[in-house]
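COURSE: Structural Biology Practicum
ASSIGNMENT: Worksheet 4, Part C
STUDENT ID: 0417
INSTRUCTIONS: Below are two proteins. For each, the amino acid sequence is given first, followed by its structure token string. Answer the questions at the end about the second protein only.

PROTEIN I
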Amino acid sequence: MLGPRRTSSNYVDWDILFTDPIADHNQKSSHTKTRAQSIMEFQQLMKNDARSALHHELERLGDTAAKECREEVKKDFDNFETLFKRFLLKSGPSIIWNDIKAPPKGSIKGYTDISSSSFKCSEKELLSKLVVVKLNGGLGTSMGCTGPKSLISVRSGLTFLDLTVQQIESLNKKYDVDVPLVLMNSFNTDADTKLILRKYGSCHVKIHTFNQNRYPRINKETLLPVATSCNDPLECWYPPGHGDVYECIVKSGLVDKFLKEGREYMFVSNIDNLGATVDLNILNMLVNPADPEKPCDFVMEVTNKTRADVKGGTLIEYNDRLRLLEIAQVPNEHKDEFKSVSKFKIFNTNNLWMNLKSVSELTRSNQIEMEVIVNNKRLGNGTNVIQLEAACGAGIKSFSNAIGINVPRSRFLPVKKTSDLLLVMSNLYELDNGTMVMSTKRQFPTTPLIKLGDEHFTKVHKFAARFSNIPDMLELDHLTVSGDVTFGKDVVLKGTVIIIANHGERIDIPSGAFLENKIVSGNLRILDH
């Protein structure tokens, strides 16, 4: 008989549950030692109670699943319990700041060194070893769209998914190969994605899909699932981040299938990173290592950090292993130091190359360790919930011979906001078989900094209504737009342009306007900048 469901009145005190009693009391006297020991014992009791209560609730929740999928649901819940136990082990920051070291010499290689190596086999042979995996679990809600983010139109009416298929098809035709495309969907994106995949039936690309887990959101006060039935609304559930890729691609059977076909490596990246294309130089380094006795089994592409990337994860050495350090793991008093461009010079692009055999062996033996990320959310009814997630890059420390490669910035072209969308829609980029390439007409290979403010630009449909057509931005360095601003046809923007419409005012940039190093203020005065 299962115990009673804990109600919202039985809330969990996070300060007590996760405080570090030894650090807080420094063991200066026998009294503080005794007090610290007492707190630790109480914490353990609280954690045991939380684990037991969650187990009972998951058992109850699993029984509400349809009979034909109940066993699978309960396996997923077992995996969630394991994640929850790791979450409860947390006590303070997950790293000791003073133990952080710079990555050891040779652990981060320069892309020029990689690209200068000669190929020991044909491109066709290299590509026969490869699988391309795109992370396709996200929705387009942050940009005001419904459905999968991969179905948002980004250039010439083509979506992220269209461009991805074009890239792989072009590769397959050029080298007469059959590189498969694999999509990791979530329960949020699976149905819509599969409907769209029908249109690629005649393309020269084999497309496979698998789903990441569906885990229950946890009430922050009670540490219990907000769902009471497996049929509860979607907002009661969440996909637990892209760290799911290891377990889910292995249990899908795809890794075994690809290994039997003689494939050796998978290239994993976010589907909204338009710079994440197959790189034959990196693949050559993996397939034909300089030291055959020490082949690389994991590559993380990193690139130089700018002020726009200060929150991006970075590579460090910690406990004698290469490790990804995310801002969420950094103690509050060191966050500014973490954001320093001078101390932490690189960040993770989330373009990852992995040895399929290593992924299979490490996953099946439960040796892939990833830090638990606690993501706080609020439901429509006001309930505060947490999502326990993991980042796939964090798995780097579990691989025996992992490295970073400092790649050109062009391999990191994510579209997270409409300001990113404006960049890739402009004449700054040209489209070549699904790949975005910076225009040769731009004199400097740097990307302009674009800031589009407030509610007028954040959603795709509102953003589109602001432009008669996309301005010429070939010589733009910095654009800031705030307030009720519209752009006419054939506007040219150069240098630094700042356009600010005050509240209640509107600025219409006329067709054919030429703005170079200008500030346009609320009363339409145009000032030199």
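PROTEIN II
(use this one for the questions)
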Amino acid sequence: MTVDVGISDHDENDGDHAPQPYHFKASREGTESILPDSEVDPYVASPASRYTRYDLRVDSRQNDRATEIKIFSWKRPHSRAMHCAWISFFLAFMIWFAVAPLLVEIQNTLGITKEQVWTSSICSDLTTIFMRFFIGPLCDRYGSRIPMGVVLIVASIPTAMVGLVNSAAGLAVIRLFMGIAGSTFVMAQHWPTCMYTNETAGTANGIVGGWGNLGGAFTQVMMGSVLFPALTSAYGGNTEKAWRTVCVFPAIVAFIWGFIVKKKISDDSPQGYYREMKKRGTMDSSFYNYTTTRWYSTTLTSGSHNRNTWILCWQYACCFGVELIMNNAAVLYFTDRFGLSTQSAAAVGSIFGWMNIFARGMGGLYSDRINLVRGMRGRLLMQTVLLVLEGALIIVFAYTDTLGGSIAVMVVFSIFTQAAEGAVYGVVPYISTLHTGTVAGIVGAGGNVGGVVFGLIFRSLSFGVGFLVMGAVVIASASLSFLVDIPGHAGLLRGKDSQHAVEVRKRHIRIANAVAALQRSTRNQRSSRDDTVGDGEGETYENDENAKGSATSGRTELSNIEQKNKTVEQNDGEGLRDSVFRDEEEGIRAEPTEEAD
């Protein structure tokens, strides 16, 4: 059953009559807890929201973040934001790697060396590294929507200018500016993290990242196997004119979409736009301090002092960095190793990226599921196993000497690579609640660091040796999972989950089960009415009473959840606040209770 989303009557200029913050605020004087009165209806919006009801179940104690995902829904705010995030990242990937399937043709036209080609690819990643560090704090402050639109508009301009390149230096410079598009990954991960609870964000981030990464596969096929041959034919076989023209097409699409995203097609958070929320006094207090009127995350150093951030940064370098290498090198590898044409090599190379249809989302999904059973220890264990399998299959790929065998191995190691990416970003939301954007930016930048490091390896070594070295580095990175230590959560070898962490998981399961019971009772009630048409009033009455009893049971279960949550709030409220403000800077601290410890 789909619940329509409605807009409340609150006006952004209501002043003193605007809705007040719903959950809790932070100030230098302490914290104030304002928890919801009832959780019987998981679809109702908090008073702080510009909506009255949501299409998805939400957790009011996590600022109306959704606890479920509807893939085929376009309704605001949660589903709309998720789809806008992956579409934007998809188009960003198109302009970021528009040149990659054309590199063989560009190399032949300009007469440049293999080393110069790899230098241009490295330049593309260097820009993205800097931009991801820079964009993270901006997302925490302004949300993901505005930065996403601006970056797409700006990055599409150098993409349209690829045809003006006449030298190796020109190619490097133009790809340096095209690398700006890669920073959209930060927004693509920050956006769903703001919309979905930690118990669901791994799946949401995996879907957004995976479907966005499909832009790499789509670009290989569209640019290398469709548009380039079509333009070559249109220009009478002139391949130079074809590659100098073809990049204009993805640039135009990304430019237009950038303006669409920027014009409020979606929300910044479940409760509305950041700018309006700040005016109404309903800004998520995890990011904004009303007492000092300052944002918590405003500098590049916010969230960077956490050791876990840098561990995940390097592990992400060893999965997404590998994907970047394959996006840049697939056509070069298959033309060099097996003598394929540009069109054929682009089609074969795109297979690696097509696995993003399900692989990255699958990594996030199973990370979320194992978290409900084993907690953070389960997430880290899964992440470690995926990295080991990824590295081992890269080494096998290096030794495969047939085209069919290479394609088969590439497909399998692509699945593990992208599943590892999803698993890493299943952990990211737990690192620092106050600095989610900054942490996502640093970890995301790690992916491009991997692209640069591995790019330098392939620039100096043969493909075979390069894959061997890359596989060994990936396997070694898996051991870093043993060093991850997130307060309140068990590590791989030591520590245990806090009472609050355990209760959050249990509440997530209880609410999901109770809502499922209500849905079953509703279906049974409808079925009983249909079955008893014409069978007599007495039988109808009996069946209706049974259906009503089932529905009452489901509502009673939700009421029990409400009562238990109120008890937990009394005993664990300080632990909840402590989990949010644990990393808080500038002397703002919440004192933990014995239960939270």
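ANSWER KEY EXCERPT:
Q1: The chain is about 65% helix and 5% strand.
Q2: The longest strand covers residues 24-27.
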